[in-house]
Amino acid sequence: MRFDLSTYKQTADRLDVDDIDFDAFRDQPLAPEHLRCLRYMHDVENHTSCYLRNLLNTRAHHDPEITTFLTLWNHEEFWHGEALARVLAAHDEPGGTPRVASMRRRLGWRIDTSPVVWMAFSAMTRHFLAVHMTFGVVNEWTTQGGYVRLAAEARHPVLDELLRRIMRQEGTHIAFYRSHAMERLEVSEAARRTTRRMVRALWSPVGASVMPEAETQHLVRTLFSGPDGVAVAERIDRRVDALPGLTGLGLMAGARARYG
Questions:
Q1: Looking at the predicted structure, is the pLDDT value of residue 112 above 60?
Q2: For tag attachment on the chain, is the N or C end more exposed, with fewer CB atoms within 10 Å?
Q3: Quick check: 167 and 147 in contact, CB under 8 A?
Q4: CA 14 from chain center: how many Å?
């Protein structure tokens, strides 16, 4: 079923956290290993605007439906980052603008985050949007899976509610990316071949390209190990398998082997 963008335009909004008791984290702080995962998630959510900058230098900017979605998606992701920053603040840790500024200074002008690279790749293949939409849905599935696992591991009632609200919005993002990925992959064998090749060669866990490897290792080991973590990872791989032309990639299995 095609994504209903007109409805999303009416419902997209900042995350509602007015009734979230962030001070509860002062009385019941997260365990260090879970707080470390949350720092990672905060940093990745706040990197969305840089990702958007790169996308708007590609073929994506020719499609007004995609740019409309990306505008609203970026707005909602920003507020996810702001909410996670408030959790960090309740633990007396820096979040929001100061932490994001430090992260961007650390990254500098890296080739893998340069808009020039994205522009070149977009120019090389007419199937760029199939690749982009597929990466989008895979990344949203893994992000959603990470939130599910953090809530299950931390067992914190306030974090549970906050992540539930974030995941509700992420679910809408998944629906858009999946709809457009399916549309482009179903109609073209060349798009399926190109997308499979690019995903197999370039995909890594969300944030792995901008976070220190030790942080990605910690996230994967904490959230995607043990029976419950493996079950979520396998569910993500089954969802990827259901995309046309992408059966058997084992992306999460590969991530667990590399970082776990």
A1: no
A2: N
A3: yes
A4: 17
* pLDDT for the residue 111: 43
Task: Copy the structure tokens of residue 63.
Answer: 């499609």
Report which of 162, 154, 156 is spatially closest to residue 222, judged by C-alpha positions.
154
- Give the tokens for residue 175: 């629906």
User: What residues have CB less than 8 Å from 197, skipping those under 6 apart?
Assistant: none
The answer for residues whose C-beta is within 8 angstroms of residue 238's C-beta and 6 or more apart is none
| Average pLDDT in the chain | 91
Residue ranges making up the domain that contains 172? 25-259
pLDDT, residue 52, reads 80
Radius of gyration of the chain (CA): 18
Q: Which two tokens mark 159?
A: 């974090």
For residue 209, the model assigns a pLDDT of 85
More confident residue, 49 or 80: 80
Per the domain annotation, does 20 fall within a domain?
Answer: no
- Residues 108/97, Cβ–Cβ less than 8 Å: no
What is the pTM assigned to this prediction?
Answer: 0.92
Average pLDDT over residues 125-130: 88
pLDDT, position 113: 55
- Please report where in the chains the tokens 């962030």 appear, as a residue: 22
Share of the chain above pLDDT 90, in %: 77
Q: Is residue 142 part of a domain?
A: yes
Q: Shortest CA distance to 142 belongs to which of 258, 12, 256?
A: 256
Q: What's the length of the chain?
A: 260
Q: What is the DSSP string of 170-207?
A: HHHHHHHHHHHHHHHHHT-HHHHHHHHHHHHHH--STT
3-state helix, strand, coil in the chain (%, to 5): 75, 0, 25
| Backbone torsion region of residue 156, taken as left when φ is above 0, otherwise alpha when ψ lies between -120 and 50, otherwise beta | beta
> Number of structural domains, the chain?
1
**Position 8 in a domain:** no
Q: Is residue 3 part of a domain?
A: no
